[in-house]
Amino acid sequence: MEKLQSLTQVFTSGEQVLRQTQASTATASFVGDISLVRGVADRLVAEGDKTFSGIDALLAADLMVGNLETPLSTASLDPVRGTFTSQPELARYIFELGFNVFNMANNHTMDCGEAGLKDTLEILRRNGMAHFGAGENLAGATTPLIIEKNGIRFGFIGYSQPELDAATPISAGVAPLRLQRIEQELEALRGQVDVTIVSLHEGYEFQSYPRLDFMQLCRHLAKCGANLIYGHHPHVLQGMETVENCLILYSLGNFLFDMPYHREVRATREGLIAHATFDAKGVVALKLVPTYLDDECRLAGTTDEARQNTLGRLEVLSRQLGDLEFVREQNHESVRQVMRAVLGAVYHLGKNGDQAGFDKYFQHQIRRDPYLKVFKDYGEMAGLS
Question: Looking at the 3D structure of the chain, how many domains does it have?
């Protein structure tokens, strides 16, 4: 199999041909995290589709793929998992942008429990939206989505770092990120599709570099037959690279997601539309379109200067992925930051005698897989394991 070219030109011109082809092609646009909450919900209620400025034209593709990181439901929040939910009636504004495929393997899909997932799946079905990565049980959550465009068969599979909301053989949830299962799915898809897209929800939030374990996982999956790996969860942009015949996008940042950090940290306002062209052998070309969510939660493409700044930063982040010791040290700093936040929260809850708050925090946070990773990584740093 022909290898893809290394990413170079895309960081200066915004576009790059990665492999020559004479065959028929199809296009797909990928974006990061979507959640219709907080300021985004307020803006949609007040302005409707005026919230978006020219975004539909920037997204235009045969397949338009987003990470739907919210239930679309009026069901009550789950007392352990629940953080937020989106008003179902606001979803039409996303659908009208042209999205037709949603990943649901993430850590907020189950915020309203099984009832919320059922509502969300029904809304997606009713509006003709394809989806993958969650279901009524483990078999449903891990069932690949297969779509044909321009004679090219695409297979989508999605997984989220295993938390309390992972599906089981008898209960609803998201597909848990387990290496052996992903390898099995890639092998099973090999004879069914031409192009395999793997969506992975993993990493430390608000950090500019992927975890080394995650990088190694993605590079391994590239050699197992994935053609494009689509990452999300950090809520900020991370680097990208080509490995074998695979394009790896470690994190596309936030697309439409108002966060508590939104007005303080510019990086959480930035997103990226990755517009890929495919033939029946995989990725042919890549175009990058930076986006920006402003203080009023209006979404638009960036100015020329901001676009070049974003692409320049992506070039640096991507080049540094080749220096594993540098990435390791960045990982260590990420672990220190998260540990300070976790231990600081626990300390104040204990100091204030807030037993109910401590119990809720323990249920909602400490047992979640990201925090277990932090403890493991910190223990390794300290020479405890």
Answer: 2
Read off the pLDDT of residues 82-92 as tens digits, 9 standing for 90 and up: 889 999 999 99
pTM: 0.95
Tell whether 229 and 364 lie within a shared domain.
no
Cβ–Cβ under 8 Å, residues 134 and 174 = yes
Q: Return the biggest CA–CA distance within the chain.
A: 68
Helix axes 212-223, 324-351, angle to 10 degrees: 130
- Is 88 exposed, middle or buried (CB count within 10 Å of its CB: 0-12, 13-18, 19+)? middle
pLDDT digits (tens, 9 = 90+) for 169-226: 999 999 999 999 999 999 999 999 999 999 999 988 899 999 999 999 999 999 999 9
Quote the radius of gyration of the chain (alpha carbons, Å): 20
For residue 1, being part of any structural domain is answered with no
Answer yes or no: is 263 within a domain: yes
- Pairing relationship of beta strands 240-243 and 246-249 according to DSSP bridges: antiparallel
- Residue among 122, 39, 49, 131 nearest 92 (CA): 49
CA dihedral 240, 38, 101, 91 (to 10 degrees): -160
Q: Which domain holds residue 231?
A: 10-322
> What CATH number is associated with residue 217?
3.60.21.10
DSSP states of 255-284: EEE--TTTTT-GGGGEEEEEEEEEETTEEE
Query: Domain end: 322, 341, 365, which one?
Result: 322
